[in-house]
Fold this sequence. Notes:
Elements: E1 3-7, E2 9-13, E3 16-20, E4 33-38, E5 46-51, E6 56-62, E7 65-70, E8 75-80, E9 85-89, E10 94-98, E11 105-110, E12 119-120, H1 123-134
Antiparallel strand pairs: 1-9, 2-3, 4-11, 5-10, 5-12, 6-9, 6-11, 7-8, 7-10
DTDP-4-keto-6-deoxyglucose binds near residues 46, 47, 97, 108 and 114.
Amino acid sequence: MDVKKIEFNQRNNTTGKLTFLEAKRDIPFEIKRIYYVYDVAKGERRGFHAHKELEQYLICIHGGCTILLDDGLEKENVLLNNPSEGLYVGPGTWREMYGFSEGAVLLVLASEYYDEADYIRDYSQFKRYITDKEA
Ligand code: T46
């Protein structure tokens, strides 16, 4: 599965914590877009799609949420509840986000501008896409 949890640089002292990410050093792609998902009501589930080309880092900068990842063969659930950790999610990965704690903020760094044509929003279409790619 093309996913990986990364620990970012942290500087902690008695007054608090600071995490930083540097372009090209910590994030291998050029960041073309940043967005964040927040105010997600208890029990809500989002995502339900894969991307054909897009690479992203997901960082839960406040609170926590869980990401279901599926490459068409295996499924994995990753808890994000640490602002100094990022989850790289590569193309061809179905994702669903759930279990948002109250006030959770999920920040996303994306390699491309928003393009609806890059989304696969239908699960059977995703399975066909993966099978065709492997053939
Ligand atoms: C992803 C997960 C982690 C835009 O117009 N511009 C944008 O940059 C984005 C991200 C979305 N939109 C529009 C598209 C929809 O009409 O905002 C609406 C909500 O987007 P969506 O339903 O895709 O949101 P999520 O939370 O299900 O998924 C988002 C990202 O779209 C997706 O790429 O990987 O977060």
